[in-house]
């Protein structure tokens, strides 16, 4: 009984709902029911999935440890999806970009400062993928791309020989 009395005192919204029972029920006359329509647009032709002979991933970053960890992550994700990883390697040396600036803009040409940016690379080659598997894999690894890293994807697609090209006759 004390619990109901405490609820009655503390919750004016509950008290109003209990006193005005008409607010709880809504008349059915205002509700409109729309009938379900059958689907008329049925695709007539089945669209075939793309086939990729090779997908090359090029990863760039400023920290080699982060790149190594991310490449392990990509290889693990590929193995879970059943994608064949043929090659995974890194360049031996980093690409260095140097900028030389004067300490003072006006004079003292001898006093210079050099800044250097190092970019590290890692590469992964994947073989024999379908379009849906490739899209799923790439979206997953792009969403988990760490900061300071860039990803470049190159796809080699298998296509049907065009009709205007005929095989050689013997």
Write structural notes for this entry.
It contains four helices and five strands, in the order ααβαβββαβ. By secondary structure, it is of the alpha+beta class. It has a domain at 51-88 and 121-158: Alpha-Beta Plaits (2-Layer Sandwich). The longest helix has 18 residues, at 64-81.
Number of E strands: 5
Largest sheet: 5 strands, antiparallel
Secondary-structure element order, as H and E? Answer: HHEHEEEHE
- The amount of helix comes to 25-40%
> What is the end-to-end distance?
101 Å
Q: How would you summarize what this structure contains?
A:
By secondary structure, this protein is of the alpha+beta class. It has a domain of 76 residues: 2-Layer Sandwich (Alpha-Beta Plaits), CATH 3.30.70. It is built from four helices and five strands, in the order ααβαβββαβ.
Summary tags:
single chain; 170 residues; alpha+beta; Alpha-Beta Plaits; 5-stranded antiparallel beta sheet; 4 helices; 28% helix
Write the layout of secondary structure elements.
Elements: H1 2-10, H2 12-19, E1 51-61, H3 64-81, E2 84-90, E3 95-102, E4 112-130, H4 131-143, E5 149-158
Antiparallel strand pairs: 1-4, 1-5, 2-4, 3-4
Helix pairs in contact: 3-4
């Amino acid at each position: 009984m004390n619990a109901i009395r405490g609820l009655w005192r503390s919750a004016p919204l509950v008290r109003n709902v209990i006193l005005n029972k008409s607010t709880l029920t809504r008349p059915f006359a205002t509700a409109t029911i729309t009938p379900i329509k059958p689907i008329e647009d049925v695709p007539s032709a089945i669209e075939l999935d793309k086939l990729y002979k090779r997908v090359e991933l090029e990863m760039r970053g400023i920290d080699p440890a982060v790149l190594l960890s991310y490449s392990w992550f990509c290889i693990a994700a590929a193995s879970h999806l059943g994608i064949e990883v043929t090659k995974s390697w890194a360049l031996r040396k980093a690409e260095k970009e140097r900028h030389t600036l004067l300490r003072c803009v006006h004079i003292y040409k001898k006093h210079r400062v050099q800044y250097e940016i190092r970019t590290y690379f890692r590469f992964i080659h994947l073989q024999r993928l379908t379009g849906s598997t490739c899209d799923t894999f790439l979206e997953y690894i792009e969403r988990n791309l760490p900061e300071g890293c860039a990803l470049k994807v190159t796809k080699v697609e298998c296509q049907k020989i065009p009709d205007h090209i005929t095989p050689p006759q013997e």
